[in-house]
Specification:
With about 800 residues, the chain is α+β, with helices and mostly antiparallel strands. It is about 45% helix and about 20% strand. The protein is built from 26 helices and 28 strands. The strands form six sheets. It has a seven-stranded mixed sheet. The protein has a six-stranded antiparallel sheet with strand order 19-18-23-22-21-20. A hairpin with a 5-residue loop joins strand 18 and strand 19.
Length: about 800
């Protein structure tokens, strides 16, 4: 099979960190071969390490070309979401698709394509997974501090009392936008009310934008935000924090496609950090001119640590190389970019013509016209160049001083300058930039239009007001009062003739000029070679930049996965705490009861027991996991193994009485062990100590036998009645005296005995009135004529006996008829 190490080390396999993919897929069960096959098909490579991977025949017959499957997935995703991911970094997209395949346990891209068509929810899940939302408050604090010193300080100073506009594309859940808002609020201080701050946060994910609008974040942000800022700008809620309303009102969040939708305008700052790393070169070339268009003159661009402006050095000037802070340059021509066509219902209607603007002040217009005339006729000609010697502005009539060279068009001042001025101009600029001071030089003679002209040069360095860009103003002053060197030489020659030394000096001067010109041309050739070498270095730098972006993207993905794992870890910790508390409760319950309980699994291995069970079954805590049948219990339980198997199989509890070796009696109860999902996973054994109950029962049985024998031995009739006056027992003397049997009078109502012969008023009074009030009475005389027996005079003795809610009446009858007759 193909292992992960082989797949990652293969030169033909795309650069996908499989460990990063597998880290977020802990619940997916796939073999390394299936993972490798899925990634290879997504990458469009049919082989790994030169050895073909075996595929199931049915999958090989149905699956189309791997590259086609990848593009079909992207086309389906674009149709669903409106976002074209084909221009994103392909390796990143493939990794995220492979991750979703692993989570859904799908082995082939063709199967996943069908799954996407069947389940729109999976399409939304894939879309959210492709939009890697990795952000935090004050991410990279050093970069934020550099942004504050380089850009925000100047913005606050220039816009105090006005408006500051910031755009954060790819804002994710809004932490970066709120970080900038908090920083500006701190810098503005009490003047914040007079300065309007508008921060626009945009992202492709609707869910992320919704969360950003809400401004609620977990307690973990306390590791990113200082305690002082938490107190000042956050409100503590249950389970987290929420941004104060004043900060939320500074920020506006919306869904936007950076590559298609029009940008915001008149911006002072664009903070686009770690967004370009997900776009390929074509999209980056489309996005960067959009930023240039959206920014005000001198506006700031803030990129991620692995991002650069690439080939757009003519649009942005580098302000901080370490933290990737740039300023907008004034481009000669507007950079071209395209936006997606708006939907038909979104096309703005033409505005109705309003009233004409009032005419400008005539005096003000006249002043401007006079100023332009004075500048055109009396001010020296000049140009403004940047630190790269690129011409940014022309002023006045500069044609005599410039002679563009052959070849590619260039605005470099040294390439445009007249050959006779190039050397002096280079010297003056070098000294001005080095000393950062105005440098002047007069009496420079050069040939123009067949004659000699004398000019003075002046270079004045300065910085722009808002962006702080370093520029140089170069002025050309015509010196009409000083004769040209050539004219002076010709006048002297006319008067006195040319002496051989003077001619030799002129020849040496001309030779020196030619030598200097050759040196300049050689230097220009060297510059061309250096330029070619620089282009090669830039090409290599772009390749390294691309690699760096790939690494940064992988880092972002790993961070996203790490955040998911952190959340999962927090949930597991909470569950572990709950389980720990539950385990403690269960342990205390088991140790606090004196009942012997043993729990076994389906293999009859001990899983838990109480201290009482340890004594009866000869167990110890270390015996957990061993077979219960391996121990000899102190209680005689025949066929315990078979009984446990029967309970697990039939789910019918078993209960019986067993006796220990010391003669103790126990009640054995076997019940199935049920899990929370109603699954049988063993049995529970319970032994209740019933020895005292057993002995009490025996004593009661002996007492019952004694009482029955006693009543049977008494020569006088005796009846035992219950609480309802029903006969529970009659002794033989009663049956002989009243000529009946026990079977006839068993459970009979006393007043119904012998066809109602015992329904005697005195007896009723005795049993219903006297006895309930007194627990006993003696020698209650009753005279009654019984059918078949004749008149009888009886002395009744009764006693009420109550035990545990059970009431009995013991009625003894003494026949005193003979005694009454003698009297």
């Amino acid at each position: 099979g193909v292992t992960f190490a082989q797949a990652e080390s293969s030169a033909k396999f795309p650069a996908m960190p499989l460990s990063a993919i597998a880290a977020g897929c802990v619940d997916a069960v796939r073999t390394p071969r299936q993972i490798a096959l899925a990634l290879v098909e997504l990458a469009g490579h049919p082989y790994v390490s030169g050895a073909p991977l075996e595929k199931p025949e049915e999958a090989a017959e149905e699956a189309p070309a791997p590259a086609g499957e990848f593009h079909k997935l992207l086309a389906l995703l674009k149709h669903r979401t409106g976002v074209d991911f084909s221009l994103y970094k392909p390796n990143t997209v493939r990794r995220r698709i492979a991750r979703r395949m692993l989570l859904r346990q799908v082995a082939r891209p063709a199967q996943y394509f069908q799954l996407l068509r069947r389940e729109p929810a999976e399409m939304d899940a894939l879309f959210d997974d492709l939009l890697i939302s990795v952000t935090s408050f004050f991410r990279d604090p050093r970069a934020f501090e550099a942004l504050k010193k380089k850009a925000l300080t100047k913005l606050v100073k220039a816009r105090r009392g006005g408006e500051i506009r910031v755009w954060v594309p790819g804002c994710a859940t809004g932490e970066e936008a709120y970080s900038i808002a908090i920083t500006l609020a701190e810098m503005l201080g009490p003047a914040a009310a007079g300065t309007r701050v508008q921060i626009f946060g945009t992202d492709l994910s609707e869910a992320a934008v919704a969360k950003a609008r809400l401004g609620r974040y977990p307690e973990s942000i306390a590791q990113q935000v200082t305690p002082e800022r938490l107190r000042r700008f956050f409100t503590r809620l249950e389970g987290g924090y929420q941004i104060h309303r004043a900060i939320r009102e500074m920020c506006t969040f919306a869904r936007q496609n950076l590559c298609q939708d029009p940008p915001f305008g008149r911006l002072d700052l664009v903070s686009c950090r770690n967004v370009l790393i997900y776009l390929n070169a074509a999209l980056q070339k489309r996005v960067l001119p959009v930023f240039h268009y959206a920014l005000k003159p001198g506006g700031w661009l803030f990129l991620g640590s692995s991002e650069t402006i690439g080939s757009f050095a003519d649009l942005f000037a580098l302000a901080d190389k370490t933290h990737k802070i740039y300023t907008k340059k004034s481009a000669g021509a507007r950079p071209g970019f395209e936006f997606a066509e708006p939907a038909r219902d979104e096309i703005p209607r033409p505005a109705r013509p309003g009233p004409a603007a009032p005419p400008a002040d005539a005096t003000l217009d006249l002043g401007k016209q006079v100023d332009r005339m004075i500048l055109a006729n009396f001010a020296p000609s000049g140009v403004v160049i940047d630190a790269d010697l690129q011409v940014r502005h022309f002023s006045g009539h500069t044609a005599p001083y410039f002679a563009p060279a052959h070849g590619a068009a260039s605005l470099n001042l040294l390439h445009l300058a007249h050959p006779g001025l190039a050397v002096e101009l280079r010297t003056v600029l070098h000294r001005a930039l080095k000393q950062n001071a105005a440098i002047r030089k007069s009496g420079i003679v050069f040939q123009h239009a067949g004659g000699a002209r004398t000019v003075g040069l002046e270079a004045v360095p300065f910085e722009t007001r808002l962006s702080g860009e370093r520029c140089v103003l170069v002025l050309f002053r015509e010196e009409y009062g000083r004769p040209a060197a050539g004219a002076v030489a010709r006048g002297q020659t006319a008067r006195s003739g040319t002496t051989p030394p003077e001619a030799r000096l002129r020849e040496e001067l001309e030779s020196t000029k030619q030598t200097l010109q050759a040196i300049i041309e050689g230097q220009d050739a060297s510059n061309e070679e250096l330029k070619s070498a620089n282009e090669e270095i830039e090409s290599s730098n772009e390749e390294l930049q691309s690699t760096n972006e790939e690494l940064q993207t992988a880092k972002e993905e790993l961070q996203s996965t790490n955040e998911e794992l952190t959340t999962l870890n927090d949930e597991l910790n909470e569950r572990n705490l709950a389980l720990g508390e539950l385990n403690n409760d269960l342990t205390n319950v088991l140790h606090s009861i004196s009942i012997a309980i043993v729990m076994v699994d389906h293999k009859l291995a001990v899983r838990r027991m109480t201290p009482a069970a340890e004594r009866l079954f000869n167990l110890q805590p270390k015996d957990v996991g061993r077979q219960l049948t391996d121990f000899r219990a102190r209680v005689e339980i025949p066929d315990l193994h078979a009984l446990l198997r029967q309970v697990i199989r039939t789910l019918v509890p078993v209960e019986r009485e067993v006796r220990g070796g010391d003669g103790h009696w126990y009640s054995l109860r076997l019940r199935p062990y049920r899990t929370l999902d109603n699954r049988i996973d063993g049995a529970a054994i319970t032994l209740l100590d019933i020895d005292e109950i057993k002995h009490t029962q025996e004593r009661l049985e002996v007492a019952a036998e004694f009482s029955e024998a006693l009543t049977d031995t008494v020569r006088h009739p005796v009846l035992v009645l219950d609480s309802e006056l029903r006969v529970r027992r009659a002794n033989p003397a009663f049956c002989r005296t009243f000529k009946t049997t026990r079977a006839k009078i068993a459970n009979a109502f006393i007043y119904n005995l012998g066809n109602g012969q015992w329904d005697i008023p005195q007896l009723r009074r005795l049993l219903e009135e006297i006895l309930p009030q007194n627990s006993r009475f003696e020698d209650f005389k009753v005279a009654h004529t019984f059918p078949g027996i004749g008149p009888r005079t009886m002395l009744l003795n009764a006693r009420r006996i109550e035990r545990g809610g059970d009431r009995r009446i013991l009625l003894a009858i003494e026949d005193v008829t003979a005694q009454a007759a003698r009297r």
